[in-house]
C-alpha cells in the first residue's frame, strides 16, 4: 500500500481533530483525567502523532511530557517518582512522549540499568499502573510499530536533512544497529505489562500519516460518549 498523500491525510485528520476538541471539552466538563503513553522505536513517529493530537487543544488542558535523562538526584529516587508529578489533574489530557517504559527499552538494551533494576521495573510497572487506573485515570498505552527497512530509511533521511538532524541523538546512532535487541526487549515488555486494565495497543506506523489516523481513531473509540 502506498503512503497516504498529504492532501488526503489532512482531509481525514480534520474531523478527528474536531472530535478531539469535543473530547477535551468532555474531560473538562466531567473532571476526568486521561493519560496517553506514546512509545516506539527511534524514528517511529511519536512526536508527530502527539502534535496531531495536541495541535488544536488548549495547552492549559493538554500537556505534552517529554522528560530528559534523569539528573543525579532523580537517579536516586524510586524509578516512577519523577513521572508522578506529571500525571493529569481533573479535566486534563497528558501525552507522554516516552514514559517509564524507557527502562524496558533503551535502558535495558543500552545497559543503562542493572538486571536487578530491570527486573524490579517489570514487577512494579503493572502494579503502578493498576493504582493509576483504580484511582480513575483513563490510561492508554500505544506502541508505534515500524519495520527495520523503514526505520533505516528514516535514520538516513535525518542524517541528510539539516532540518531533521536535531532529531538524532548519540544514543539514537548507537541504537541503530540494535534492532533485534529492541525487538526482544519489546516482546518481553509486552508479555509482562499487557494487562486487562492497562493493555497495550500496537499501531502500524510504517506510514506515519495512516498511523496517526489509526491511533487517534482508536483513542476516540475507547472513550465513552463525549458529547456535553
The run of helices and strands is: HEHEHEHHEHHHEH
Global shape: globular
Average pLDDT number: 95
Helix % is 40-55%
Name the structural class: alpha/beta
> What is Rg?
18 Å
Q: CATH superfamily membership, which one?
A: P-loop containing nucleotide triphosphate hydrolases
- Put simply, the count of helices is 9
Tags for this entry?
transferase; alpha/beta; 228 residues; 13% strand; single chain; PPK2_PA0141; Rossmann fold; globular; 5 strands; 9 helices; EC 2.7.4.-; five-stranded parallel β-sheet; P-loop_NTPase
How is this structure best described in words?
Helix content is 49%, strand content 13%. The longest helix is centred in the N-terminal third of the chain and has 25 residues, at 6-30. The protein has a single domain (6-221), classed as 3-Layer(aba) Sandwich (Rossmann fold). The chain has 228 residues and is of the alpha/beta class. The chain has helices spanning 6-30, 46-54, 81-84, 106-110, 115-134, 148-160, 170-175, 179-193, 208-221, and strands at residues 34-40, 62-65, 93-97, 138-145, 200-204. It contains nine helices and five strands, in the order αβαβαβααβαααβα. A five-stranded parallel β-sheet has the order 2-3-1-4-5, with helices on both faces. The mean pLDDT is 95. Its EC number is 2.7.4.-. Pfam families: PPK2. This is ADP/GDP-polyphosphate phosphotransferase.
Amino acid at each position: 500500500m502506498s503512503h497516504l498523500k498529504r492532501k488526503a491525510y489532512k482531509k481525514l485528520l480534520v474531523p478527528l481533530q474536531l472530535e478531539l476538541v469535543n473530547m477535551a471539552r468532555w474531560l473538562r466538563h466531567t473532571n476526568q483525567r486521561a493519560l496517553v503513553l506514546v512509545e516506539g522505536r527511534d524514528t517511529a513517529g511519536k512526536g508527530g502523532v502527539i502534535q496531531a493530537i495536541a495541535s488544536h487543544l488548549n495547552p492549559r488542558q493538554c500537556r505534552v511530557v517529554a522528560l530528559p535523562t534523569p539528573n543525579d538526584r532523580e537517579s536516586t529516587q524510586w524509578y516512577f517518582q519523577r513521572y508522578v508529578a506529571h500525571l493529569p489533574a481533573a479535566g486534563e489530557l497528558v501525552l507522554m512522549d516516552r514514559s517509564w517504559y524507557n527502562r524496558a527499552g533503551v535502558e535495558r538494551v543500552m545497559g543503562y540499568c542493572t538486571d536487578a533494576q530491570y527486573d524490579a521495573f517489570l514487577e512494579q510497572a503493572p502494579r503502578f499502573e493498576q493504582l493509576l487506573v483504580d484511582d480513575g485515570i483513563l490510561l492508554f498505552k500505544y506502541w508505534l510499530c515500524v519495520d527495520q527497512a523503514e526505520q533505516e530509511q528514516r535514520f538516513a533521511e535525518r542524517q541528510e536533512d539539516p532540518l531533521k538532524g536535531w532529531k538524532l541523538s548519540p544514543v539514537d546512532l548507537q541504537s541503530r544497529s540494535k534492532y533485534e535487541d529492541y525487538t526482544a526487549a519489546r516482546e518481553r515488555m509486552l508479555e509482562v505489562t499487557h494487562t486487562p486494565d492497562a493493555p497495550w495497543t500496537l499501531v502500524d506506523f510504517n506510514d506515519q500519516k495512516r498511523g496517526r489516523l489509526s491511533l487517534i481513531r482508536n483513542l476516540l473509540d475507547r472513550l465513552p460518549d463525549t458529547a456535553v
